[in-house]
Hints:
This protein has about 70 residues and is an all-alpha fold. It is about 60% helix and about 0% strand. The longest helix has 16 residues, at about 15-30. The mean pLDDT is about 85.
Amino acid sequence: MVLAVEGLYSPKREMMTEIVAIAGLICEYNITLRIRHVMGKDFNVIADHLSHDRVEEACTAAVKELGLSLWFQ
Length: 73
């Protein structure tokens, strides 16, 4: 998914719907989107929470593991 979003393309037709939506938001809001894989157990816990829409748990894990807060609008 990272490569597909980063390149705004996927050969998988079902992924292109989401990628086009992301591209539209990037253009509409003049966003500079930077996508990266983050290696490591601590980051994976945070990413896992976020991938399951558990934002509160991700924020708690970020403070606990990294001493940093996540900011969401």
